[in-house]
């Protein structure tokens, strides 16, 4: 109860008390006189009149009080509404999400975040239709106008809407947004509120995850999981004949061992590109694992599959990039009727691939050796004449040592390939005119071990691998890489050390002048027992180069 109402009640009680007292007085006078004279009657009348007047005034005062109370309530409600609107405006303007208000299909208000996200000016978009801010169609193929009008209509009917949308800004950038539509009643009018969140980065991340789940990260081709999924899906009569091509990249282990996995990855990428470019758009090209690739060709005969295999081989031969010539062994098999098991066909393609790899292995290795020698010549600038001189001197010395023809052939091969490990040393170090840094020198000293790994991985070279590893060992044990001494050093490596040193001293290069055979002979004698086998130096000087001095 308010203070005013309590006051009115008190006044009414007082008026009643006064009326009772006055009435009692006049009634008592009447009792004493035993008659109702005019003065008593008039007193009772005025007492009643005063009481009624007080009641009337109280009633009117109460009406005024109620009116004032109603007015105060309305003022409070208005102030509360204004405060609510101020709070909403503050939230509206400071929201992290873009907010848009629409009425009867037109934009009536937006917050600063919306203008920032859409790179728009407020005066240019207010009054426009919401679909005028979008591209003509959405990724699902539906027209933007049709789809958006449907969503707004449902929201106006009281059904909240949540959906993804694609927008093309004026600068051409595509942004993906998440839209939430809700109906609001503002001042007894229906308004649709759109809360918009930029999900471009999220969609990009989702796209990357989807891509990685079906594609090989290194080559960009489909991965094994995707291929197996498609193999099941396309294994139908409508797709017959289904041809399978299995491929295996040759020389990957050699490249990994010699140049490192980074170069091996480059070889795989080159092979993947060749295979992809040699196939049709509808063919499914996948990395099967490691150095193996697989191709599924729906509605393709064995003849056509073989034509594609030929295209791949030709493209490999024409590829000149990389230290190792790109080479891929291929096997083909075909499913021609539904009675055949597709996995049996796949196994047949793999078996055929290994058959080709076995029959081609000798020519592949020969190609690898040729490529290695070509690369070595290009990086070290060692001429073919230098190799021929070493081979000639080595054979001559071998004959003086009564080596067999087989041993002489091995010696000639070692003369040709002893520095093969230098193909893994950067050319900037090999051709550096000044002194090498300790780090660069360590890189140079690694070439015997690299050469050893190369030779060990090729059947035709494996028997000279130890000679390659030891050709920088010294007679006194101060050489590298293992510090072997005297007879621990293989004979062929000791011979190559002598003839190579002689040829380097007697031939002019960009970095030094040549010395005469006599001077070279003296230098070799000085190094006998220290760098070189004393007996071999004596034999070389007396028997091999005696006619040149």
The tally of helices reads 20
**Mean pLDDT, rounded to whole units?**
84
Secondary-structure element sequence?
HHEEHHHEEEHHEHHEEHEHHHHHHHHHH
The quaternary state of the protein chains shown equals single chain
**Order of strands across the main sheet:** 2-1-5-4-3
Strand fraction: 5-15%
Q: Roughly how many Å apart are the termini?
A: 135 Å
Query: Nearest-angstrom radius of gyration?
Result: 50 Å
Given as residue ranges, the uncertain stretches (5+ residues, pLDDT < 50) are: none
Number of strands: 9
Indicate the overall shape: elongated
- Main sheet overview: 5 strands, antiparallel
Helix content: 55-70%
Would you tell me the structural class of the helices and strands? alpha+beta
Word description of this protein:
The protein is α+β, with helices and mostly antiparallel strands. 58% of the residues lie in helices and 13% in strands. It contains 20 helices and nine strands. It has helices spanning 3-33, 38-94, 112-118, 122-125, 144-156, 200-214, 224-234, 252-259, 261-278, 302-318, 342-380, 384-400, 405-417, 427-430, 438-445, 447-456, 465-470, 491-506, 517-527, 534-544, and strands spanning 98-103, 106-110, 161-168, 174-186, 189-198, 242-249, 284-289, 292-297, 328-335. Helix 12 (384-400) runs antiparallel to helix 13 (405-417) and helix 13 crosses helix 18. The mean pLDDT is 84.
């Amino acid at each position: 109860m308010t203070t005013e109402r309590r006051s009115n009640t008190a006044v009414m009680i007082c008026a009643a008390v006064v009326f009772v007292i006055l009435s009692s007085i006049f009634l008592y006078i009447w009792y004493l006189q035993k008659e109702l004279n005019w003065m008593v009657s008039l007193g009772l009348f005025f007492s009643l009149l005063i009481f009624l007047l007080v009641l009337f005034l109280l009633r009117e005062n109460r009406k005024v009080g109620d009116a004032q109370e109603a007015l105060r309530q309305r003022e409070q409600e208005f102030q509360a509404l204004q405060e609510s609107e101020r709070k909403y405006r503050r939230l509206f303007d400071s929201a992290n999400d873009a907010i848009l208000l629409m009425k009867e299909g037109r934009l009536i208000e937006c917050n600063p975040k919306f203008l920032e996200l859409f790179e728009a000016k407020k005066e240019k978009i207010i009054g426009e239709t919401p679909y005028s801010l979008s591209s003509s169609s959405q990724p699902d193929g539906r027209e933007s106008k049709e789809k958006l009008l449907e969503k707004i209509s449902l929201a106006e009917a009281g059904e909240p809407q949540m959906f993804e949308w694609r927008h093309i800004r004026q600068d051409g950038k595509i942004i993906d947004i998440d839209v939430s539509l809700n109906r609001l009643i503002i001042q007894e009018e229906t308004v649709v509120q759109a809360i918009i969140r930029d999900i471009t980065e999220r969609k990009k991340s989702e796209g990357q995850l989807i891509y990685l789940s079906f594609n090989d990260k290194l080559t960009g081709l489909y991965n094994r999981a995707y291929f197996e999924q498609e193999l099941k899906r396309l294994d139908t009569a409508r797709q017959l004949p289904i041809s399978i091509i299995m491929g295996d990249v040759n020389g990957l282990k050699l490249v990994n061992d010699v140049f490192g996995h980074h170069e091996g990855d480059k070889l795989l990428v080159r092979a993947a590109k060749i295979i992809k470019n040699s196939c049709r758009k509808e063919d499914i090209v996948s990395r099967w694992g490691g150095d193996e690739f697989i191709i599924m060709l729906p509605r393709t005969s064995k003849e056509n599959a073989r034509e594609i295999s030929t295209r791949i081989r030709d493209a490999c031969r024409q590829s000149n990039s990389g230290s190792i010539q790109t080479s891929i062994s291929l096997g083909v098999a075909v499913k021609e009727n539904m009675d055949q098991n597709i996995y049996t066909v796949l196994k047949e393609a793999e078996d055929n691939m290994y058959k080709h790899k076995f029959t081609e292995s000798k020519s592949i290795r020969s190609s690898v050796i040729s490529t290695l020698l070509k690369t070595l010549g290009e990086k070290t600038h060692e001429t073919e004449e230098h190799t021929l001189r070493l081979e000639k001197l080595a054979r001559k010395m071998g004959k003086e040592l009564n080596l067999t023809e087989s041993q002489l052939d091995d010696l000639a091969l070692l003369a040709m390939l002893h520095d093969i490990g230098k193909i893994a040393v950067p050319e900037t170090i090999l051709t550096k005119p000044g002194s090498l840094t300790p780090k660069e020198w360590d890189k140079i000293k690694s070439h015997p071990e690299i050469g050893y790994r190369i030779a060990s991985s090729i059947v035709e070279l494996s028997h000279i691998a130890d000679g390659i590893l030891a050709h920088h060992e010294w007679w006194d044990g101060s050489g590298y890489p293992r510090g072997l001494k005297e007879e621990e050093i293989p004979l062929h490596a000791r011979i190559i050390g002598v003839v190579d040193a002689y040829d380097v001293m007697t031939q002019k290069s960009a970095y030094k002048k040549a010395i005469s055979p006599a001077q070279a002979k003296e230098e070799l004698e000085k190094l006998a027992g220290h760098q070189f086998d004393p007996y071999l130096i004596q034999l070389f000087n007396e028997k091999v180069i005696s006619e040149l001095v």
